[in-house]
Amino acid sequence: MVLENYVKLPREKERVMRFRPGSFRVEETTITDPKTKQPKRLRRAVVDVTEEDYRPVVKIFSTLSEKLATQLRQAHETGDLYRYHVGITWHPQELATEYTVRLF
Prior knowledge:
The protein is α+β, with helices and mostly antiparallel strands. It has one domain (16-103). It has two helices and six strands. The chain starts with 14 loop residues before the first strand and ends with a strand.
């Protein structure tokens, strides 16, 4: 059995989630930069996931994308992030990754 603690977004396929109320936060983490092999500090937006594709789970969703984090923060501030299902679709591109967010 593989332990899956994080929600992974598939390419061009919507992942539908429900989030634990009030769980949006920004965390600092340190990673090893793959190019320089030096430690690098990053900030990421994190939300606790209670439902993934309509199945109950205990996971987290995190993103380094400033644009996606801003959309999630705005929905957090209005409460919509916890009131609705949130569909996120990852659109990978060569130079810039895009995300589509849908609240329903």
